[in-house]
Each structure stands twice: as structure tokens, then as C-alpha cells.
Amino acid sequence: MKVQPERLREIGIRLLERRGSPAENAWLQMDLFIEAELRGLASHGLQRLPLLLSRLDKGLADACAQGAHHWSRNSFLTVDGQRGLGPVIVMNAMREMRTGLRKNGLAIAAIRNANHIGMLAYYVEAAVADGMIAIAMSTSEALVHPFGGTQAMLGTNPIAIGIPCGERPFILDLATSIVSMGKINNYAMRGAPIPPDWVVGPDGRPTTDPQIARAGAIAPFGGAKVTGWGWRLNCWSPPSPVPISRPMCAAHWMTSMQPTRATSSS
User: Fold this and answer.
1) In this structure, is residue 194 part of a structural domain?
2) Which residues of 156-187 are buried (b: 16+ CB within 10 A; e: fewer)?
3) What CATH number does the domain containing 72 carry?
């Protein structure tokens, strides 16, 4: 069965509004989900909506929250997400970051206590559309084993970079794991086997069963080198607890800079 994106958006917005979400918050959350689906990223798309609705029903998320902002330094913004919807909290933080950009040409935001923020490309593309260079980073619960190991100790720890450059900007969005847990969940929902090099099961052996993989450890992307990047992010923010039954406590970082300031010889 095929359903038009706008119909899916309408249904999702209605479900969120029934749980108290303001219309603009619901639209932004669904825009993120729909955009992921349109890019073929089901792992970050509508399959996440039932979990989000469940978290709202349990009081683990607040669909009305906008985020509390505090400039601890001229260019450094700290954000309490107040258990709000991920894209709402991040986009509000990015709007607030413009204050630091106007003054200093650079702004960094550290965001905590927000729900899943989805694909990071969504945010760096928004910054690039405003003519900014942007870097976004995030953490997750411990899902990834270190290079040479079998126990999940690191987050998937994605990073995205956006740089305006002519008609088509440079956009990079990738995780430090070989695959996201969302994609494994998608395979499990479809009853499809996964490649043998994605995950080791609880017994430490490679598995093609996505149900077993959900309790295992994902392989790091890029071996030892990217494992080091994963460790670096988790030194800033340890892997968060599994978030299904408690408020999420992943950490996110956003950096924006004006290209003219970034490339100035002075």
C-alpha cells in the first residue's frame, strides 16, 4: 500500500496534537520523520513514531517543551531540552545560536535532556541554507563494541558536517558504527536477515538474525580509527542508559560559524 507523504504527515501531526503538542512542534517532528523516509532512511523515519507516542503517554517526553537557553560564554550556549521533542529543541537552539554568530562569528551549543533528534543532516542543511558552516554531533546508549572487542561500550555517536559551496553544498552525515540500531530494528520488523559483519550477538559471535542482534553489539565503522573517535565523544558524554523506560539523557553538540570569519586570514 502506498500513502502520500502529506497524508502521513497529517496523521502524525494529529497523533502528536492529541498528546498536547502545539501544531508547530508536531509539524517539525513529522517533517523530520517524513524527510528521513523520503531519503530511504526508514531507520530514522516513521518507525520511530510509535515509540515517541509511547514516551509521551508515559510522561517521559514533553511535546510542549521549547528548551531553556543559557549563554555560559560569549560563544557557548548550554541548553536544557526539558524532555522536549528532539527537532524542536535543536532548531530552537540553532535560532538562539544566531546571537553568538552575530557577535563573534562562531557559536557552539551543548544540548542535553532532549528526545531523539533523528538524522543530523536535517540540521546542518538548515544551517547551510542560512549561509553557515555547521557541525553536529550526538551520542547514544552503549550499542557499539570497540575494535577487537565484543561488548557494547560505545554509542553510535554520529557526526554531520555542512559547508556552503556553490550551487550544491557539501553535506556529510555518518555514524561511528557500521549501521544504526534503527536499521537493525527495521530489518527485525521485516523479518529480513542482516549482513554477518554488522553485529556480534550476546555470545560474541557474528549473527545474521536481527532479533539476536538487538541484544548484541554493533561493529564500529572504520576499525580502530573510528573507535578512537567514538571514545572521544564518550569522554565528553558517557553512553546514556537505554532510553525506552526512562527519560533520554544523550548529549548533542551543534557548532555554527560564518564562512567569512572561518576563512579570514586575520
Assistant:
1) no
2) bbbbbbbbbeeeebeeebebbbbbbbbbbbbb
3) 3.30.1370.60
The answer, yes or no, to whether residue 266 has pLDDT greater than 60, is: no
pTM: 0.90
- In order, the DSSP letters of 21-83 are --HHHHHHHHHHHHHHHHTT-GGGTGGGHHHHHHHHHTTSSBTT---EEEEEETTEEEEEEEE
Assess whether pLDDT exceeds 90 at residue 262.
no
pLDDT digits (tens, 9 = 90+) for 45-97: 999 999 999 999 999 999 999 999 999 999 999 999 999 999 999 999 999 99
For residues 131 and 171, membership in a common domain is answered with yes
In degrees and rounded to multiples of 5, residue 5 shows phi and psi of: -55, -40
